[in-house]
Specification:
Number of helices: 11
Strand order of the largest sheet: 4-3-2-5-6-9-7
Distance between the termini: 51 Å
Strand content: 15-25%
Helix content: 25-40%
Number of strands: 9
Largest sheet: 7 strands, mixed
Low-confidence stretches: none
Length: 271
Amino acid sequence: MKNAEMNQILTAAGVRPNKKLGQNFLIDANFLDWIVRESGAAPGANILEVGPGFGALTERMLAEGATVTAVEFDHRIAEWLRQNLCPKGLNLVEGDACKVKLDKIYPGDYKMISNLPYSAGTIVVANLLDSPNPPEEMVIMLQKEVALRLAAKPGTHDYGALSVRVQVLYEATPLRIAPPEMFHPRPEVDSCVIRLKRLANPPSAEYRKKLSQLVRLAFGQRRKKMIKQLTGLFGKEKIAEIYEQVGLKEDIRAERVTVDQFKQLTDILIG
């Protein structure tokens, strides 16, 4: 799709892209085709799409025979989807994806395949991480710096609470960068497609919520020694003993604690 074609659709729908909503529509046909190939869209696949826009990705997944449910916030775009893609099989939920119970849309396994809006992408992913029924797989486009944060390793600048929360549940693999010229309107930053594949025997939702509480506390003041945050809540003697059990030095900062070590801390402190 060319910029001129997208402008025609926008005009017909009475839509002006909203920067606050992160409305940057992917228009590169080759890149869209590649995402569909990576997604595994096929007959029998249940797919959740957040922020479908005007359905460039949606229509391709429907054409592959997948069952697609899309969540769209903008009522003008939702009306366009009702008229143009619901007759082709799209299931549409009009609402704020940050508030919709996404994990309840499908009762069993499903995938999330989405070009996530910049404004909501992190919240959508974070909400699903603590949900009882997270996707078995996500192939999602996010702002590049956010996508790399999900896959970041200990000791790097990007490694943080969200990195740990993702990697306790998923194997995170950045796949491909999407430069601004692939979108209309052009964003000011690069985007990145990342694959999150759910691990075998994932921890329960209750456990993940406890771990989330712990890592948020640990990274609350990431420039300080992690022991200060933990001591304030659990007491100095207990933390010193647990650090010895886990093999942590007292001067370690949260950014150097591995996912496995955070799991050990969760097991001992909150488990």
